[in-house]
Amino acid sequence: MKKLLFLRFAMGSLLLLGCGSQSINQQQEYRYEAGNPYGTGKWFMGREIANVMGFEGMEWLDRPERAKEENSSTLIRNMNIQPDDVIADIGAGSGYHVFKMAPMINKGQIYAVDIQEEMLNEIQKKANNKGVQNVTLIKGGEKSANLPENSVDKVLMVDVYHEFSFPKEMMASIKNALRPNGKIFLVEYRGEDPLIPILKVHKMTEKQAIKEMRAAGFQLKENIENLPWQHCMVFVKKES
């Protein structure tokens, strides 16, 4: 009788474990439901994915007041860039951060990754004008950053992660490219602050970011809260 009770208990425990893992997997699946007018109607882990800002907004990316609004020089200092770093700027846009980092790297390189050809053309144009030779352009896809395996020390994502159409797949590709001791600098407008003048669907809370990064195999090392409007969250690969 005791043996039978034990078997029933064991089977029940396995069923509960199975249900738990199933619910976790379900959380990581995409669902479709109307939401914010500026969203895609596609949801991931309780968050609506935002529409991608098109190349038509390039001028806004290079606006003169951006340095003050975002304190971009402090962000660059947060990254502790070394001369031999290999850095991937995912969603590099028109190269705003690329050309702030490039002079600091004389032995490494920067991968400027973007999904829009027009953005990459703009970066190439600027690189030619400035004589910058340590920037490599990469055309990203919806599901992959198309970076070489085990190739980068640091990944910078400024206000772009929330626009990934397939965040689960994109983060898997980025994890594959990140070296064992590499860091991800996830910069997003603070979703906890309603006073920040950015559309809600284009913000992220620290809690939501941790949840999604954890599912992708990363853990929060620190959140450097020294930017005016944005989180600067540093993620590393989970310890095994």
TrEMBL record:
Taxonomy, superkingdom: Bacteria
GO biological process annotation, one example:
methylation
Alphabetically ordered keywords of this record: Methyltransferase, Signal, Transferase
Molecular-function annotations in GO = methyltransferase activity
Pfam families assigned: Methyltransf_31
Q: Which residues form the Methyltransferase domain?
A: 84-212
PROSITE patterns with a match to the protein in the record: PROKAR_LIPOPROTEIN
Name of this protein: Class I SAM-dependent methyltransferase
The source organism is: Halomarinibacterium sedimenti
Q: Which taxonomic lineage does the organism of this UniProt entry have?
A: Bacteria, Pseudomonadati, Bacteroidota, Flavobacteriia, Flavobacteriales
